[in-house]
Design goal:
single chain, alpha+beta, five-stranded mixed beta sheet, about 20% strand, binds tetrahydrodeoxyuridine
């Protein structure tokens, strides 16, 4: 299932614009994410760092948790924007895998140039999922 280009560009722009709200006093590496749900809604997120470093949460998880906590678990695509097109971390891939292995993951840089386009299944083959819990 592919998305139209306009929707992709929208999602990237929203993720990029969200970067200004990132709380990144330690890394100075703002990340913005935007999740598109099946219903057509978009939830954005940013990374939120903490003086107790491991408490930091990534932008992707903030966006996904905002969608889920608003009753939307049917996640179609996520855009992730950083200065240099950095890829989603392993923990975020695991959270994505909880909801949809076919979710489109669109990675872009600060100029909104797409640097990678994958499914969650591409990024985390063999993910641990609910059916592993037998
Ligand atoms: N970060 C994200 O927001 N998403 C990722 O997938 C990778 C890393 C954040 C966490 C931290 O605030 C900063 O980037 C540097 O690691």
């Amino acid at each position: 299932m592919d998305m139209d280009l306009e929707k992709k560009i929208d999602l990237i722009r929203i993720a990029n614009q969200a970067r200004k709200w990132a709380h990144v006093p330690y890394s100075d590496y703002p990340v913005g994410a935007a999740v598109l749900t099946e219903s057509g809604k978009i939830y954005d997120g940013v990374n939120i760092e903490n003086a107790a470093f491991p408490v930091t949460i990534c932008a992707e998880r903030v966006a996904i948790f905002k969608a889920v906590s608003n009753g939307e678990k049917d996640l179609k695509a996520i855009a992730v924007v950083t200065k240099n097109g950095g890829m989603p971390c392993g923990s975020c891939r695991q959270v994505m895998a909880e909801f949809n292995l076919e979710m489109q993951v669109i990675v872009a840089d600060e100029n909104e140039k797409i640097t990678a386009e994958k499914t969650v299944n591409d990024l985390l083959p063999g993910a641990f999922r609910s059916d592993s819990l037998v």
